[in-house]
Amino acid sequence: MSEESNTKKAVVVGGGIVGICCALYLQKQGFNVTVIDPAEAGESTAKWSCGQMAVSEIIPLSKKGILKKIPGWLIDQQGPLALRPSAFPGIIPWFLQFLACSRDARIEEIASSLASLTHHVYEDYEILLEDCADKSLLGTRPILELFDSPDDIEHEKKYLELRQRFGFKHQILDEKDISDLEPVFAGKFKHGLLFNDWTAVKDTKGFIAALTESFIAKGGKRISSEVVELRENGNKVNQILLSNNLLIDTDYVVMAAGVGSKLFSKQLGINPPLEGIAGYQVVLPNSGVEIKHSTIYASGGFCFAPMTRGLQIGGTIEFAAAGAKPNMKRAEIILNKATKIIPELNTDGIEYGVGYRPFLPDTKPIIDISPRLPNVALAFGHGQLGLTLGATTGRLVAEILTQKTPKIDLTPFKATRF
Length: 418
What we know:
By secondary structure, the chain is an alpha/beta fold. The chain contains twelve helices and 20 strands. Helix 1 (about 15-30) packs parallel to helix 12. The protein is globular.
């Protein structure tokens, strides 16, 4: 991508994976870019993810039979997906829209839209990673998914076939295949899948930090603060007021603050049903075992993700009321389940974490221009695909702010679709 020379200024609200990718792509278009985020680079929602480039994870959460599971989520707080009673009644409007996405035709429509984005993941990241000092930030090993029984795979059959229709592949694994790929699971699993078109980053925190370092090395600014106010002149935002009383002039704004983006909804002229769904993780800095592939334990609802900072185990999610304190017992539940599979895990120096994944009812992100403020781009609501779609979202945001026609139809990702 060629560099273009101009002196236009852009402020990106949010320094997580989506925000920093937007900043880098705007920088490549010649913008003078400032990123605003109160947290340290890498300390974002994507840090507490499994680190996978889940390019075929295009099936929305609203699969068939989801309504029948809701009572179980309320009763069983130790399951892979829990629903705190305190979340009611506030979560009901969101769930009604969520359930409306469970029809087969709607699932296929959503899968098609997400596939239009995920087909570009690697090429879009390649452009950004070529400027990073560490060329091995993105791994090359495929991802495993393990099941307790053949019935579990059979249950996913229609969705695996749908993924294949959109060009994504998988390989069915038997007990020998699994033990050959990952000796630590030998004799423990007989049924699995291999996703050769997926891979994982070496470390989620390090990946975001490295992209941020690349951004700063090329003249970008990252300010540790919170955005208090978007100040308007006419029908555009021309200044950003920060919590440290700093006032920043700008020509363009990118709203990429995840769940926090909702705070500015009214001013942006939108009303997205955005919910922060808690995802809990555990990091074992010296696990005492070798796991070479990021491995999803589908029947258990969590993942083993080997990273440079340790073995990260997590993925269980929880619906809770807005502002509710994290329930770290959810992370302990993950660890207990993991030690039943691998009893020899060393838990010394354990670290617990939680990230609030910004979910919209249809599992698709918003990638759009504010209907009220034409110099503000919207880039949030990526759910569990923030890391996967970071670079592609960044490229698309840069294209729409420079009034280029994206090759991807962005209609399915409009903020006004709800």
